[in-house]
Amino acid sequence: MGKVTLSDVAQAAGVSIATASWAINDNKKVRIPEATRVKVRKVADRLGYRPNALAKGLAQGASSLIGFVADGVATTPFAGQMIAGAQEEAWAHGKLLLVVNTNGETALEESALALLREHQVQGVIYSTWYHRSVAFPKGLEGIPTVLVNCFDDDNSHAVVVPDEEQGGYAATSELLKAGHRRVMFLNTVSPSPARTDRLKGYRRALDEWGVAFDEALVVPVRPDQDGGYAAARTVVKSGVEAVFCHNDRVAMGLYDGLKERGVSIPDDVSVVGFDNQEVISAHLHPALTTVGLPHYELGVLGVRRLLAMDEIPSEEGADQLRTLVECPTVRRDSVRTL
């Protein structure tokens, strides 16, 4: 027989993994019936369960570990930035970051969360590789958790997310400040906070500069290189002098499409992207002016928010639970000042 796990004990005792952990480790912060505590411990003894050495000494129900669980962030171009930010902030507070990449697999996520419970981590950063709504995992119930780059459906948990509206505002303002007035927005067709909030930012910038909103200048495209390439014809036909692209991949495709039509960037059309995916934006010709997604800062502020949870009133509202992180403008060579 293999090593007996906390999950085995919980199943045999007919309780949740969380209850089994609290009973075995005598967590003083959680109140469970004494009969349940005794039952779980007897089952653990019968099965020969031996608590993790780290967890065994955690009388206060917390450790020096912080869990970082993600659906795919560890395999994306921005992974290193977010993980580095979280790791460095955790280390600055004497904590260690335990990173688990689940690839979106439910079984793997459940196992990862059970492992984190067994180690009685101080809390968990739960992240997704793109900004979206998620169902709060049941395995995180009872564990201090901050959602990073995502948010729960009922807005009842602390979240740290990019300020998409401010980012859209910054991108559009960059073109307006350069003197352009007919600014097209190539927006994604994929439903997301990025789609709706960047559009809000685009419209707010136009309004502040006294430029009338023209619905015909908001063009839905696939959020990839092919989408930008296909949009080149629309850009040329419209006669616009500036384009804000939903992301850098769309901008890359637009570069190719405009070049084929003899349109020069930025002499004929100024272009601004979004993401600051440097493998793209810094190496296009000309180098792409863009707005960055603040992945490093998301990691830092996620850990900082988690460590401050004991100081924050539990009755705070949705606005107080949400931390918006500014998306910075990265100026390069794709915008011409008129």
Automatic annotation (TrEMBL):
Keywords: DNA-binding, Repressor, Transcription, Transcription regulation. PROSITE patterns: HTH_LACI_1, HTH_LACI_2. InterPro entries: HTH_LacI, Lambda_DNA-bd_dom_sf, Peripla_BP/Lac1_sug-bd_dom, Peripla_BP_I. This is LacI family transcriptional regulator. Residues 4-60 form the HTH lacI-type domain. GO terms for molecular function: DNA-binding transcription factor activity; transcription cis-regulatory region binding. The keyword Ribosomal protein does not apply.
